[in-house]
Amino acid sequence: MAEQKTVTFIITRQDSPDSAPYKQSFNVPYRKNMNVISGLMEIRKNPVTADGEKTTPIAWDMSCLEEVCGACSMVINGVPRQSCAALVDELEHPIRLEPMSTFPVVRDLVIDRERMFDALKQVKAWIPIDGTYDLGPGPRMPEKKRQWAYELSKCMTCGVCLEACPNVNDKSNFIGPAAISQARLFNSHPTGEMNAAERIAGLMEDGGLVGCGNAQNCVQVCPKGIPLTTSIAAMNRAATVQSFKNFFGSDNAH
Amino acid sequence: MAENREFFTRRLHSLLGVVPIGLFMVQHLIINHFAVYGEESFNKAAGFMANLPFVLVLEIFVIYLPILFHAILGVYIVFVAKNNVRRFGFVRNWLFYLQRITGIVTLVFIAWHVFETRVQVALGNAEVNYSLMEGILDNPVMFWFYVIGVLSAVFHFANGLWGFFVSWGIAQSPRSQKIVTYATLLVFLVVSYIGIRTLITFAYGV
């Protein structure tokens, strides 16, 4: 019988948020059409390192397994991406897995993306429709615009753009590209635009838009192909106009 | 405005880099280019600039204060970036990195250049004329220091001009940003030529 083919994973692990990271190698039996997550599941079945040492199973985050939830992002062979969509057959071997460095590590490959959700709160990336009475159906959205906005709505808060951005790090308070693009999405919605000025105000707070240094890595790495740099420039323009309205005065400053 | 200090200071930083600092630099290099047409022609032009009415007020508000603000905030901006060109070797990321490197190089160059020329003139140790620059640039080390300094400053201005167009939201679409990239590349080439050509005249008399 032919020898069983194996896949080698070199994984950067960390036992707790404050402990030091270390590397472990694992050989897992190869199966056809494996993705990185199925490799991690194999390790979980039999958590023994390549040196034959018994260890704890790897911790990682995942949910949808079809690249729409953003939970399973990690750095695979140096590239931040979703592990569900990373096919073993298409990767260089051995496969190196690391947690995304921009975010605090919870354990092994699990990171805490809370700063992204805080950023969404800062720019009020939602449409307030709650009231004490039925507010009615709201204005209609042209189909053309809906199709355009759909592209922006693909953001899954996966954190890959923040990982690639040189200005998102522990020395800066920049909220990152994702939330800026979301503010643009909700500002272009016919109901959402009623609160456009509030979102722009969020973008003009500390850590907002001006933290962008136009390195434009975000748009290159976004797994959903969202035009993030166009969104940033669009919100830059909106903030310019808003700041003039605020300073010189305008009845349309809201 | 008080509650959006970072927004205000960063936008001001971007604006000051172009107006007045960038405009001053281009004007400065063009006036210096008179050197290429002969010593007398340079001395006449430099003398005109040095004897402008209210020259000290002009210098303080058009040059010193804007540059000081731009430099101090700029060093902070350099400090808060975590450059990653090795992981993400995209052109724009390199330009982002170079913008920070040339910013620091330009700061060192300008400090040296101002000390050697304007400060010495103010102290009465030198006079603004052709022979002052000839004396400095005669030394090959200084010549190459000036070449690097001028190229850094011009790159920082041209790329910063691109950043200005994006940061103020003038160039939004990828196409317009690309065309502004080419336009600012042209600015870099033309202004660099003007600056370097002058340095060659001072150093080698040709």
UniProtKB/TrEMBL annotation, chain A:
Domain of life: Bacteria
Any one Gene Ontology BP term: respiratory electron transport chain
Keyword 4Fe-4S annotated: yes
UniProtKB keywords: 2Fe-2S, 3Fe-4S, 4Fe-4S, Iron, Iron-sulfur, Metal-binding, Oxidoreductase, Tricarboxylic acid cycle
GO molecular function, one term: 3 iron, 4 sulfur cluster binding
PROSITE patterns: 4FE4S_FER_1, 4FE4S_FER_2
Known cofactor(s): [4Fe-4S] cluster; [2Fe-2S] cluster; [3Fe-4S] cluster
EC numbers: 1.3.5.1
Keyword Metal-binding: yes
SUPFAM superfamilies per UniProt: 2Fe-2S ferredoxin-like, alpha-helical ferredoxin
Ranges where the 4Fe-4S ferredoxin-type domain occurs: 146-174
Recorded family membership: Belongs to the succinate dehydrogenase/fumarate reductase iron-sulfur protein family.
Protein name: succinate dehydrogenase
TrEMBL record, chain B:
Transmembrane segments annotated in the record for this chain: 12-34, 54-81, 93-115, 143-167, 179-204
Keywords: Heme, Iron, Membrane, Metal-binding, Transmembrane, Transmembrane helix
Record: residues binding heme: H28, H70, H113, H156
InterPro entries: Cytochrome_b-558 (IPR011138), SQR/QFR_C/D (IPR034804), Succ_DH_cyt_b558_Firmicute (IPR016002), SuccDH_FuR_B_TM-su (IPR000701)
Main location: membrane
Protein name stated in the entry: Succinate dehydrogenase cytochrome b558 subunit
Domain of life: Bacteria
Cited SUPFAM superfamilies: Fumarate reductase respiratory complex transmembrane subunits
Pfam families xrefs: Sdh_cyt
Originating gene: sdhC
Source organism of this protein record: Ornithinibacillus halotolerans
GO molecular function terms attached to this record: metal ion binding
Subcellular compartments: Membrane
Entry GO CC: membrane
